[in-house]
Amino acid sequence: MRLFLFIAFIFLSSSAFSQRNLPYDVGEHAKYNISFGAINVGFAELEVKEIISINNKPSFHIIGKGRTAPFFDWIFKVRDVYETFIDTSSLLPLVFNRDVREGGHVIHQHYKFNHKNTNVVTNDSIFDITSQTQDMLSAFFYSRTFKKDIVLNGGSFFVPIFMDDENYFLEIKYLKNEIVDTKWGKVDCMVFKPKMQEGRVFEDGEEMKIWITDDKNHLLLRVETKIWAGLIKVVLEDCKHVKYPLSIIEE
Asked: What pTM did the predictor assign?
């Protein structure tokens, strides 16, 4: 699930996004299959559940979930829940909750973002952050508001992210457009490549690619990551209550 949410950090740049005409709305629900080679190993889903008030600010309540397929529950059971509350005006996170249960590994995180004072309050500490910092889940929905012409012509750019009690930067590079076969038909997608940076040291992100629909929805359609043992894929399986119809290419 963490791999799935990592790809959500694409496209963030203060000059590259528009907060008008959001590409999503309350009720949107997307489901993904996660596979390793030809084997389905798990599932993930994202839901824009409601708008509620957080600190007197209307906020999107968004939930992301990940779990292993039934067979793999016997080997390494995963039940992950990510929850963010995003200011509908600034599209910045106000609260982030993370409940991770992966085998015997358990993580509970609760972050309160104070963007005015550029800090995050956790369960037991306060951390400084940079301007426009996102959490692991809010970044995906903020990213979908990007202005295509600026992103495609701007080359690589960097994104501030706060996760696991640390500040990171993400470098994103647009590669090309590609037609992808889906259960709904052929869909034109933009393909991107991410690299993570901690301080000045980049982790190897060369083998990860992300496909985003080149339409008004900017939906995450596919992720592929090569590891030493094979290929991990995340593929959109179902979507409901999307704001705009998918732009299917007619044969």
From this structure: 0.85
